[in-house]
Amino acid sequence: MKDYWVRDLSLAELGRRRIEWSRNFMPVLSRILERFDREKPLKGVRVGACLHVTTETAILVEALRRGGAEVNICASNPMSTQDDVAAAMAEEGVRVYAFRGQSFEEYYRCIGYVLASEPELTIDDGADLISTIHKLYYGVESEELKHVREASGDLGVKRLVEGVIGGCEETTTGVLRLRAMARGGRLLYPVVAVNDAESKRLFDNPIGTGQSALDGIVRSTGALLAGRDAVVVGYGNVGSGIARRLRGMGARVTVVEVDPIRALKAAMEGFRVETMRRAASHGELFLTATGNISVIRGEHFKLMRDGAILANAGHFDVEIDKRDLEALSVRRERVLPCVDMYVLGDGRRLFLLGEGRLVNLVCAEGHPTDVMDMSFSLQALSAEYLVRNRGRLPREVLDVPRELDELVAKLKLEAMGMELEELTEEQRRYLASWELGSR
Predict the structure, then answer these.
(1) Average pLDDT for runs of 10 along the chain of length 439
(2) Is residue 426 left, alpha or beta, with left meaning phi > 0 and alpha meaning psi from -120 to 50?
(3) Is the CB of residue 54 less than 8 Å from the CB of residue 25?
(4) Which domains does the chain have, with CATH numbers?
(5) Is this prediction's pTM over 0.90?
């Protein structure tokens, strides 16, 4: 088993400087790190993580290690690793297997290296690590498992599963996959849905992605958003945040949505709501945020205007159908570091950002550090919760305990210099009573 697999160790000094810069904006996780250093709540626990390897992730890994854990980490996206950060982590003794621009084989070999450590806790962003464990256990054959097995060696899958305490999942797409496992009675161990905690989904998803997705688009294209005809596909926590921030930048925003409640919400918040087919004919900028496959596909590409820009903010690169785009194209050319031009048979050009992968991480730096402070604090506290409740939790997708969710919010407010109001005793009695009413 390799001790690490990174692009270039000589980048470590730059990575260390950037990690220290990010630490300035992660006061909540820093407090948790200090407590973990004193109490060692994860002592002796092997953690396997499949996350975007960024400066913020490096501080989460430090917190877990200060808490006594042994951490092995791979990337959760072939294009999202910050190579200088990965180098800095490797020099600190972290078993890190991540570099930007991984091939299909390399990506899954890195997952195999993490699994070779037989993790007792899994921490995912997109559920690739946990789904790989389940495919191995249930004997599901797939191309990627060949590469996983080559890297993991003589892995006893049954022994591995029996030793797992639990897992944490960071993102909407991953939680959807885990709930599908749970519904089918196939989930092998308890997993905390960190994504669904209010301190995560109300801030990380709409605010963090809302800002960072637009950052990725502007960095990669230099496009002016004001006045642009923008189409947001999906109006969940992520899509709604993107739509609001596009409008704040002066774009004319249309929403495409399959859920009638979400579509109505978008309409009541002042957005135009249309089918993808209709929006395709007039949009200049398209952003997907659904977690579903082929929401923009061949029939839509055929209707798009020359010069349309396509970007994805969902976890996997399946929302914009690249196979259909390739089939309709006579030529593809990389015109900028993060922009591929597809020339269709009639001469129209469509521009795909970041190979259809997460635009905020492939074309920019990902979420602002300030918001990742909350998300990764929840990850650290959820890991501690799983260890403290070892053997007592059901094999289900579990909510983050409310007290941990509120603790993160309170610590964040304190760090921002804000204060909470407190209920009086009379108010507490009133809220707890059914007898009291109008006076």
Answers:
(1) 92 98 98 98 98 98 98 97 98 97 97 97 97 96 94 93 97 93 96 96 95 98 98 97 98 98 98 98 98 97 98 96 98 98 98 97 95 97 98 97 98 96 94 81
(2) alpha
(3) no
(4) 9-201+367-415 (3.40.50.1480), 206-362 (3.40.50.720)
(5) yes
